[in-house]
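Troubleshooting entry. The earlier prediction with beta-D-glucopyranose gave an output that would not parse, so I re-checked the input for stray whitespace and re-submitted. Clean input:
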Amino acid sequence: MSDSADPIAGLDLTEQAALGSGASFWTTKAIGPVPAIVLTDGPHGVRRQSGSATDHLGLSGSEPATCFPPAVGLSQTWDPELVERVGQALGEESRALGVHVLLGPGVNIKRDPRCGRNFEYYSEDPLLSGKLGAAWVRGVQSRSVGASLKHFAVNNAEHDRMRASSDADARTLREIYLRTFEIVVRQARPWTVMCSYNRINGVYASENPWLLTTVLRGEWGFDGAVVSDWGAVADRAAAMAAGLDLEMPTTGGVSDAEVVRAVSAGTLDTATVARAAGRVAQLTQRVTQTDNTATSFDADAHHQLAREAAQRAIVLLKNDGDLLPLAPSPLAVIGGFAQEPRYQGGGSSHVNPTRLDIPLDEIRKLTGDHPVSHCSGSDIAAAVAAAESAESAVVFLGLTAEEESEGYDREHIDLPETQLELLRAVVQAQPRTVVVLSHGGVVRLDAVAGLAPAVVDGALLGQAGGGALADVLFGVVNPSGRLAETVPLRLQDCPAYLNFPSEAGHTVYGERMFVGYRWYDTRDLPVAFPFGHGLSYTRFEYSDLAVSTVDAGLSVRLTVTNTGTRSGREVVQAYVGLPGSSVGRPVRWLAGFGAVTLEPAEQRAVEISISRDDLAYWSTDAGRWVVETGEYAVWVGASSRDLRLTAAVTVTGDEPTRPFTRDSTLGELLADPVAAQSIADILSSASPFDTGDSALGTNLLRMLESVPIGRMVAFSAGKVTGEQLDRLLASVNAQRS
Ligand code: BGC
């Protein structure tokens, strides 16, 4: 910004400090040439509150806006292009409703199914979350509305969310919890990032210079404004010094005065205040660069888009005997959610929909003249009678809004026992029973899947979900959604089971990088439904896998053939693994995905690019990402457990060459081709141990592997001197570099 164009050049310290906090619940301050802007939730619809009733808990009403599928549904599409279109529509609605920054996407990793806010997050996998989050940001910002990537970072539970510290090591942070944010920042350049409430390794996210400045700006190149979550700032001056630019909501000027006092006291410098004010001013320029005054939006077109997204989000979990799709015939529809659908989550993201599709009405539209009865299921006898007198039954099960929400976590993942009792009775009376599930967080499904021949997962589908469900039940749409989260058999199997929620103010991320399928698959634990799972009304065959290295990483190519009788879309997932890796890694991880739509008997090539970044691990020693040299396994499949083809590919890595020192172990030296020979000579000439057959019944060479070579001076009783060792290490290091 040149001085003449610099909107804060003429502002004094008090005015600059004032720019860095809200004027009201949802607005910033207009000061000098800097206009006020409006920020609001987000993410799956615009929650524009007007008048005096404002809150960040979804308590007060808001103006009508399209309620798209929340992230839990949207993620099941595995479709960045569709998510980008949803983002565009959200951007248009934001503009029409006078909103400049839409507070989303929420991309925190689903670490544990009990997190009350999982419905607002995409996945247990950072790549899937990152690709979808980036698409959302691109879409919203294409309409000159800013996104706010949240909640940065490691905010994976609601319990004690405003205080607790998420304690995780460097690899865990980099490879899982920061990775999604990194992908979105690098690929979509959001105009704001929202720092979370919690602490990270003891330091509040809002006061964390490493997080907000070193990593976010220094490493990832973020050039927007950091906004606080609503009420996340405990010490505004410390936060500003760490890299916070805008505290929300208003503090009535209290924290602005704190900033000015800190400058007077010499604990905060004026450049820091000016920097934050400059970034707020830059944000206002970005979001007002085109005319952002209210126009209308096309509610019909957006409802149709919400339906398309919901159709694509539905996952067919089970379909024994091809019970689905149903042909129009007498049907019993059971369950309250058929008439009062559960379609979004509770809390700050709660949207006032422009309209609402009722599943029962939509089902009736597709059954012609056939009778469709409905009962709530709270009286089991009536449900049984209805199911008996029909030719098939559809039972709606799931979680009520009160059972999961922003602000608190669940204590278990079970469906209410009364729902299972109902299902048992209905299936006994009517074997042709389909279950439709509505829920934000994962629920235990072994009992449901054991009883019902067909299970359709509707997660949360937004305002048009009712029509989309009917479309899938009757085959108007062939389902192609895929789980973005593993459904475990039991809560006790979950990776964070013993470390959730926080205890005495700390959450120990003891399972490290082994989150979701990384845990279940590496431990080879049985699950109810694996990550990436989802059936279709047709069948697909995979063939001709070819994997090659390219500059950017790997190129994966295969052929997919529709061998069934219906047109359908197949989501192809590419996983990689490195057997024999020098560090602990999951057996495989998602490294790319793609999709293809095929008519019966049609076949097409599918190409998936795997970025070199997605082969890397975070080296704590080197303080950077490292790609190991080795033979990587690449699998393509229809879930993390349905791997159809595999190939091996040799990758040349970029491991750092660290010089050997006296602290290097014999094992490390022997593993190095250059060092090995010299060390072997020393060992045989100077070791007091006979490294051949051992009288102790042990492999002495292996025992010695962990001995630092410097200790050989003492062990050899002076046969090897320290100087000799140093000369040898210097010569080895010289040959290696
Ligand atoms: C939530 C944010 C939300 C903000 C404003 C907070 O409670 O954590 O996601 O954007 O309120 O409503």
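This one parsed fine. The CA atoms of residues 635 and 646 lie 4 Å apart.
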